[in-house]
Design goal:
Layout lengths: L11 H9 L19 E6 L3 E7 L8 E6 L2 E16 L2 E17 L10 E5 L2 E7 L13
Antiparallel strand pairs: 1-2, 2-7, 3-4, 4-5, 6-7
Length: 143
């Protein structure tokens, strides 16, 4: 037997439920009018090392932090942007933007932290991460 359900399309609770049904499906981003900084990565691998190129425009070298722990790499930066338009002694327009951004990723093999190198030039961070030599597997004799 078929159940018939009576529904009032103008009921306030149904309108609100219908309105909110897909609202939280996609994440909503708000950056206060300033475009959010995203770290765009390119990771390459050869036999001896990983090469990472990260685009970080508008970031100063001293505001970048790179941490390498085993095969996990974390790149973090603090962004500070200020602009002011002055006319004589009066400030007509002033904007400030402060924020933090980070990106973490794992590599297939552990990195030799002691010989890793980082270079930053014109908004491009270049990391050279040598692979740690694999330890030979040793079979243990059971006594």
């Amino acid at each position: 037997m078929t159940n018939i359900v009576r529904r009032d399309p103008f009921a306030v609770d149904n309108l609100f439920d219908d309105l909110m049904k897909g609202f939280f499906v996609r994440p909503v981003r708000y950056s206060g009018g300033e475009p959010a900084l995203e770290i765009k990565l390119e990771v390459k691998e050869n036999d001896k090392a990983y090469s990472v190129h990260a685009e970080m425009p508008g970031v100063k070298k001293e505001d970048i932090h790179v941490n390498v722990e085993g095969g996990m790499v974390t790149i973090a930066a603090e962004v500070k942007r200020e602009s002011a338009q002055k006319e004589g002694e009066k400030v007509i327009h002033s904007e400030r933007y402060y924020g933090k951004v980070s990106r973490s990723f794992s590599l297939g093999q552990e990195v030799d932290e002691a010989s890793a190198k980082a270079r930053f030039d014109n908004g491009m961070l270049e990391l050279t991460l040598p692979k740690r030599a694999l330890s030979a597997t040793r079979r243990l004799a059971i006594e």
